[in-house]
Design goal:
single chain, 329 residues, mainly alpha
Amino acid sequence: MIPANSSQPLLRSGWGLAVLLFSAVGVMGMLTPFDFEGSRWIWERANPEFGDWTARTFFEGDAPGLSDLGICFLLVSLGLYLWSGRNSAPEWLQRERPYLSFIVLSALAGALGLVHGLKWVIGRARPHEVWLSDWPFTPWHGFGPHFVTEGIFFGSFPSGHTASVVTLLMLAYVLHSHPDLRRWRIWAWLWGTVALAMSVTIAVGRVMTAHHWLTDCLGMILPIWIVLHWMFHRFLRTAEQREYIRMHGSYPPLPAYWELRFAGWGFLILLGAMGLVMGLRSVWLEVGIELLMLAPLGIGLIGYAWPRFRKLHETVLAAFFVVQPDEAV
C-alpha cells in the first residue's frame, strides 16, 4: 500500500484546484455582463461554414465535425476500459486501467452528468429561441422558461459539444503522469494547449449558430476542467493507483468493474439532486407546481444512494492506500 499522506501530487493538486476554481469564477463574472449582446454580436458576424463544422457530427449522419474527435476518444477509451477488466486482457492494458477508469468516470461525471443535469434543471432558452421566437432571456445562474413537463428538451446551459471537446484534456493528465513518459512531458503540455484551443474554437462556433450563449460555452470550459482535475488528483488519485500497480505488479482485489458501480450510484444521486431542485424550482417560479412531488423523491434517492457511494469509495481507497478516516468522500 501507499501512505495516504505522502503524495506530493496531491499537494500540487490542491493549489491547481484552487487556481482553476478562482479562474472559473473570474471568467464567468467577466462573461455574464456581455452574455446577451456579445453572443448576438458573434451571431450577426457568423461564418456559416465554420458554425456548421462545429455543430455537425457523423454520429447523426452528417459529415465529420469538430466534436467527433472528443466523442471518438471517449468511445475508444470505454472499449479499452471494458477490455482491461477481463482476465484475458493483455498485461500492458491491465496496467493502464487506472487511466482508463479516470477517463470513463470523468466523462460520465463531467460531460454527461454535470452538463445534462444542469440542462434539465436550469432550462435556459437558446439564443435562436430568444431572438427569433420571443422566448425570454435568462442569465446562466437563473431558471429558464423550459420545463420537463413540456417533454424531452435540450436546454441551452451548458454546451454539450464544448464539454465533449474539453474532455480531451484528460489525455494531457495521462501523458504528464505516466511513469514511462516522464521525459516526454512537454507533449502533455502541448496536447493540453491543443485541447483548450479546440474547446474555445467549438465554443465560438456554437455561439455563431445561435445555439448557445457565451456563458454556456466559454464559461463552462473551466468548470468541466475542474471536474477532470478533481477526479484525477482527489477522488480517484489516478497516478497513485498506477504507481501501486507498478510496485505490486497487479491490480488489487476489487469488485469487477467497480467504476461502473460508482457511475450507477452517482447517477442515482444526480437524479435525486435534479428532482429536489426541480421540485423547489416549481415553487420558486410558481409554474408546474405538480413537480413539487419530485422533491421528497429526490431526497429519498440521495439518502439511499449516498451511503453506498461513500462505502464503495472507502473500499477502493482501502484497496490502494493506507486511508485516513477524513479522506473518504
